[in-house]
Amino acid sequence: MIKNLQTIADVYQYLDSLFDQDIDSDTLFASGYLRGLFSSAVSDFSDEQQEISTAIVQAVTEKLANAKTELNPQDNAIVQNFWLTLQEKL
User: Fold this and answer.
1) Prediction pTM value
2) Cα distances (Å, whole numbers) of residue 10 to 17, 37, 73
3) Does 1 score more than 60 pLDDT?
4) What is the pLDDT of residues 17-59, one digit of tens each?
5) Per-residue pLDDT tens for 54-89?
6) 68 to 52, 54, 74, 83, 84: CA distances (angstroms)
7) Suppose 75 and one of 6, 71, 87, 89 were both cysteines; which one would form an S-S bond, judging by CB atoms 3.0 to 4.6 Å apart?
């Protein structure tokens, strides 16, 4: 179960922790891909201790929409579903 993620650092820590767990390859792929997009999206914001805001969620969502052509439809669905699940904990 995902704990409540309140800051940018919390999201990084959660995504990084997935690589130490015994989880499926789709989740690992989605978390790694999303971590890169998340990092790119939050680079315009304050620092890692900044709380997750609507603007941050929107920035990541926009980056993901713009990157849709980078992924095949199945991989895109995996990443989109992972992002939706993660948003519930932000």
Assistant:
1) 0.89
2) 10, 16, 29
3) no
4) 999 998 999 999 999 999 999 999 998 887 888 899 999 999 9
5) 999 999 999 999 998 999 999 999 999 999 999 999
6) 23, 21, 11, 13, 15
7) 71
Distance CA 48, CA 70 (A): 27
Tokens 């800051």 belong to residue = 7
Q: 43-70: b or e for each residue (b if 16 or more CB lie within 10 Å)? A: eeeeeeeeebeeebeebbbebbeeeeee
Paired with 7 in beta bridges are 51
Structure tokens belonging to residue 24:
């499926």
And the tokens for 62? Answer: 């926009």
